[in-house]
Design brief:
By secondary structure, the protein is an alpha/beta fold. About 40% of the residues lie in helices and about 20% in strands. Strands 1-2-4-3-5-8-6-7 form an 8-stranded mixed β-sheet, with helices on both faces.
């Protein structure tokens, strides 16, 4: 008998409530030892025209970090409930496509593992090699699937979960002139961080000016935010980062801007308030007390909603050539 996955049940309820507005697709089925199968589902809403911008929301890449899936599911549910009465949201969705994959790694979520059922860390599995030395193990290793941060066998194809994400991103995001993505995780630390590429090199990304412009409009409109915004390379380098790989793929195309972000929620914020969580495998990565979980879900909804609005209005804030030079120079000063 297949183990229950509460997040999958919650997604099914949201899909039922929003059936007339949602496009639902199963990207693939993940099979666990014993034969139980769990779907990776993509849910889209808004205008499908390839002429319009899009935003992708991803969660559950690491099975232990269930809060990432919860944040994405909460935002999707909020949109579905608002569609029943919010005429302004209906007008907004005429100008943007929103795509959700709340559970990229359902097998890992069922097994309570960071990796997928094959023991592979999906954020170390893409064909990207770091240009400098990475931290031992954490930066990705090929010694054994029994150790964390396993990349998979050298030369092997990416895991099916990553292939499914890549196919979706190619079809729904990279096919457009502008798109954003946010991948929701929990990470060690006392601060909520928003990371942008790169993980495999300390060199600045090609769209550094656009990323700085995005951050500028966020800080201007959310003056009380508590996020640290930075390139991932300021923290550590790693092999096989999936968003580095997808950003590089986007950069080979003739035109278009693709800005991927990773939300790293500071899990020590929850452990600090409830040290007993250190003795729980899930407690190290997730808020376990109900009121703290609700607080976390509320805190990040404004960020996810901001991204949909920023995509709609991207032509108003993307820098022109003169402003681009200024943004690039300021970004180098701020982050490098």
């Amino acid at each position: 008998m297949a183990a229950e996955l509460p997040e999958l049940e919650a997604l099914a309820r949201t899909i039922e409530l929003g059936a007339k507005w949602l496009d639902v697709r199963t990207l693939c089925q993940v099979e666990l030892p014993g034969g139980a199968r769990y779907p990776i589902q993509a849910i889209a809403l808004g205008n499908p025209s390839p002429e319009l911008p899009a935003v992708g929301y991803f969660g559950g890449v690491h099975g232990l970090e269930r809060i990432g899936a919860a944040v994405v599911l909460a935002y999707l549910h909020s949109l579905v409930m608002r569609l029943q009465w919010d005429s302004a949201l209906h007008r907004q969705l005429e100008s943007v496509r929103l795509v959700f994959v709340p559970m990229v790694n359902p097998g890992g979520m069922v097994l309570n593992t960071r990796a997928n059922p094959n023991g592979v860390d999906l954020m170390r599995n893409a064909p990207v090699e770091a240009t400098e030395k990475v931290p031992f193990l954490v930066g990705g290793q090929r010694f054994s699937a029994g150790l964390p941060w396993y990349r998979g066998e050298a030369g092997a194809a990416m895991e099916q979960e990553n292939l499914a994400v890549c196919e979706l991103v190619d079809r729904e995001l990279l096919s457009r002139s502008f798109s954003l993505a946010v991948d929701c995780h929990s990470g060690f630390g006392l601060a909520d961080r928003i990371w942008f590429p790169y993980a495999h090199t300390r060199a600045p990304m090609a769209h550094l000016a656009e990323m700085h412009a995005l951050w500028r409009i966020f800080t201007q409109s959310h003056a009380q935010h508590r996020y640290l915004f930075e390139p991932q390379s300021l923290q550590y380098l790693a092999h096989g980062d999936l968003w580095d790989y997808l950003y590089q793929r986007a950069s080979t195309r003739a035109s278009g801007v693709f800005l991927p972000l990773t939300l790293e929620m500071g899990s020590w914020l929850w452990v600090k308030k409830n040290p007993r969580q250190l003795f729980s495998r899930l407690g190290i990565f997730n808020p376990l007390i109900a009121h703290r979980l609700q607080r976390v879900l509320r805190r990040h909804q404004s960020l996810l909603d901001f991204l949909s609005r920023a995509a709609c209005g991207h032509r108003l804030w993307l820098p022109d050539p003169d402003a681009r030079a200024r943004h690039h120079a300021q970004a180098l000063q701020d982050w490098y």
